[in-house]
Amino acid sequence: MDWTWIWAESDAPIMVVLSAVALHALLILYTCLVGLRTFSKMSGFDFAITIAIGSVLASVTLWQKPTLWEGAVALGTLFGLQFVVGTLRKRVPGVTRLIDNAPLLLMDGFEVLGDNLRRANMTDADLRAKLREANVTQLAQKQAAVREPTGNVPRASSG
After folding, report:
1. E-assigned strands of the chain?
2. 26 and 80 in contact (C-beta within 8 Å)?
3. Quick check: 128 pLDDT over 60?
4. Which residue from 70, 135, 143, 156 has the fewest beta carbons nearer than 10 Å?
């Protein structure tokens, strides 16, 4: 039996710790420079950047490739993109509409809006699952349900 998948080379755990500490410091630095918007998940783009940052952190921390330097550059690029897109949203009309999803009403009163569910690429079962996550067990408990720009369907307008 090959037990090498359990044990690492003697210096590997030290390198994981050093990488994690260095990346944590870079994450704090980049966040201070660009702002917390990067982790806000207010739009689909924000959510994608958050996932990408997590992926870079995991990859660089646990593997030798990509290197710490490559990870620092990748993180810097992702934060830079977030800064550029945020600036464009504020200064260029129409960019927000181009990049972000608009909120979409899925349920109005007791009525599930089938056309909007299809536009959101959701089924009635998906909507009901989201409502259960929000502790809504009966449609009568809900006055409205909205798919937010991030794709979330949070608790909204309970009756």
Report:
1. 104-108, 111-112, 144-147
2. no
3. yes
4. 135
